[in-house]
Every structure is written in C-alpha cells, then in structure tokens.
Amino acid sequence: MTARNILEVSLVRSPSFGKAHILASASDISRPIVLKADCALGQIDFINCLPVTWVLQREKPERLSLAFGTPGALNALYREKKLHLGAMSSHYFLEDGGFELFPDISISSLGAVGSVLFFSRRPLAEYKSPGVIKIGVPKASASSVRLIHILLAETYGLEPRFVAMDEPDPTNSTTELGSGAELGAGALDGYLCFGDSALLVDKKMTDSGLSRDFTRRDLGQWWYERYQLPMVFGVWAARKSWIEANPQDFAAISRYLAASHGLGLSRDFRQVVAEAAERTGLSEDRLEHYYRHELDFNLTTAHREGLALYQQLCKKHGLLIK
What are phi and psi of 103, to 5 degrees? Predict the structure, then answer.
C-alpha cells in the first residue's frame, strides 16, 4: 500500500523548551513516498508507539516491511545487524554509536511520562546513603533501567542492585520468585515498571489500595524536576552505513515518520485511542491523557540536549560500554 492522504504537518513552538505541537493541515501530500530499495523498519510494539504504527501499518510505502518487538528484542536485532533502521531505546542508540537519528521524532516526555514508574516500599529519602537498594527491573528495558540507576545515585547516593524479571509487579507477590529467589521472599525494596505493563500496574495499585503501601515515582517527572530537560526514552534511527547507501530512502522515511505520528495524533487519534483501549483494557479517558499530556514525540534541540545529558550521566556511572 502506498503512502496516501498523508497530511502535511506544521510545528507551532510553545515557550517551554520550544515544544512542538503537531497540527495537521487539510492538504494531502500530493505524491506517494517511493523507496528505491526493500527495507525492514524495526518498530516497538507498545501502545506508546501506536500514533506511529497505526498509520505505518495502514499506509506504509511499498518496499517497506515492519518488524515488531520489545525494545530489548529489537536492540538484539540491531546488534546482530539483522535490522538496520527503526525504533530503539535511547541507551542502545548511544551505546552502539553506529546509528544516525531520524529527525523530528522520538519517544519522550516533558515531565510525567505515565509508563515508566518506580514503586518503592518506603520513601527513598529514608534509605541510608551510601547504601544498596534492591530493585526488580524488566528484562525488556534498557534506557529505563539505566535511568533509575542514574536518578537513585545522583539524587540519593544509592547503589541499585537489579533483579531482572519479565514484568515486575508490586501487586503480585510471585514476581519476587524465580530470578529473584536468591534474594529471599520480600527482599526487594522496589519495582521498576515500564511500557504497557506500567500503565496496568499503576491502575491495579490504585484499585487495590496497595498504592498506600508504596512510594510512586514517575521517572519522566523525576528527570524533568532534576534537570529541566526532556527525557528521551526512545528514538528512531538508521545505521550510518545504510544511510550512505540509501540517502534518498533515508530522507523519504524521515518525512514519512514525522507525518505518521502527526496523523496518529490528529486525523486518526480516535482510532489510536480505541485500539490502545482494546489492547490494555484501560479507559479511553486515561489513554487520551497519556497521548495528549504525557508522551511527547518530538525531537527538538532541547530533546537532543536531554539525550546528551543522559549519555554523559551514563558514562559517569559506567553504564555505557563504549
């Protein structure tokens, strides 16, 4: 299917960080996007990417195929050079060093993000510094795990000890078994939740009343409060060698990605929200707030500064191999 009826996108700058608000005009792109070579685009299969993937799946250019997976699974495919372009965690982008950003698109927040959450058994200020804090973390995450390491160390002087889990969940005591059994039952001080799972855990915490027994920190808000910059959790990028071989396709896909998330947040927004509700069982009101007020898909100068600071702090704490 060719890219048709894609709306032109204009950017209106707000005073805060030059944040770009997507506005779709009534005019269509007059010509379809034509790629010169077959290529596969890696795409994160979480609802935070639905404003992009909803359009990609329905109006993608010919010769472009999509490979869906978690951030961790896609990072492995990029590492093995089985994929050369697509969505990826910010940490993997920085660690690999062989990719170039697609402009004007990211998975970020300018404050609370809603889907990267840390639940601790007691207020973090009560932990002795320096000290160790034991945390259940998701196996599929890279950027968020490094981010909680940075924030705990920089804010409270705490050293995290991580226990990898499929889906950490403070509402389910069995999540402390398996890979965390060596710590003993009830040994975890906190849980890092991200993606769709974080949204669901957050609701369960509130509905069950367990939220009274934990301290909740939104990592996007925590980062913003501390550094006054956007937190870039994920990016779209292409391997530099692929760009050199396919410069026209890189330019075409860059335009298409920017137009796609613009459409997902405007023309197709109701369908995006309905699909997210069907996948998660969350209310459309909650999901509309998530897309409108928590997620940010732009990549401005301020976003790049936030990404550079994240890289600097990862290096400071030995969290980047390269």
Answer: -75, 155
3-state secondary structure of 26: strand
**Cα–Cα distance for residue pair 191/175, rounded to 1 Å:** 10
| Integer Cα distance of 244 and 250 in angstroms | 9
What value does the mean pLDDT take over residues 198-213? 94
Q: Which of 223, 215, 92, 79 is nearest to 150 (CA)?
A: 223
Spatial CB neighbours of 247, under 8 Å, sequence gap ≥ 6: none
For each of the domains in the chain, give its residue range(s) and CATH number, in order of start: 7-110+230-316 (3.40.190.10), 116-227 (3.40.190.10)
Virtual torsion, Cα 174, 179, 181, 184, nearest 10 deg? -90
Q: Which helix (H) or strand (E) holds 9?
A: strand 7-13
Cβ atoms of 320 and 94 within 8 Å: the answer is yes
**What is the token pair recorded at 35?**
């790629």
User: What is the pLDDT confidence band of residue 129, given thresholds at 50, 70 and 90?
Assistant: confident
CB 237 within 8 A of CB 101: yes
Tens-place pLDDT, residues 15-28: 334 333 333 332 33
